[in-house]
Amino acid sequence: MSASDWPSYTPVADHALLVSFADAISDEANAAVIALDRALAASAPPGLLECVPAFVSLLVDFDPLVTDHARMKEQVERLRSTIAPAPIDGRRREIEVCYEALCPDLPAVAKASALSIDEVINCHLQGDYRVRMVGFAPGYAYLSGVPSRIQVPRKAAALRDVPDGAVLIAGPQCLVTTLKMPTGWSIIGRSPTPILQRDQDVCFLLDVGDTVRFKRIDLAQYDARRAARRHA
Description:
Blueprint: E1 8-12, E2 16-20, H1 27-42, E3 48-53, E4 57-62, H2 69-80, E5 92-98, H3 106-113, H4 117-125, E6 129-134, E7 141-144, E8 159-162, E9 166-170, E10 173-176, E11 181-183, E12 186-190, E13 211-217, H5 219-230
């Protein structure tokens, strides 16, 4: 598809419309997704229930008793024509990470990257991370920005029962688990920073558009942070 063919609109079941801005991940497409998501939140068409942003698309969920695919597409397109993607103005977040004894895949990442373990850690800390989408599990924020030198593919087999707080990478993406779950991504560290919040108005630490900086801590600091969380 050429640039003039975007966005594309795809009906999903009888209650949603998928608005796609590209067929490959790019900053421009993601900025367009976020701009439309925020515009719909500020000026919701009749029947709109929820918008779910992803890397290059926005799922627009609506009440089929109030509207339908054709009317929602018309309303979305009318609103989209009035906005222009702008630089993403998200919050800046810091996430602590420990790379000691809690990172079973760190040696394998170092071997695959032809780097030392310390070089892998330094590369990870220097990444320019931004939240592109949230999904799969509550607060599960997919970050772009893993430096090319440590980009490794998903593993051939998933590992079960990976605990919350595991710092994972796969290709150009990074994330921090929020619940115990399986993963085929490489586990390179563990974070005590709580992603799931107790604030009813702000459920998750990370939201689409936020930028993230990882801060290294040692094992004693990690243990102290986890203990403090258990007794909070």
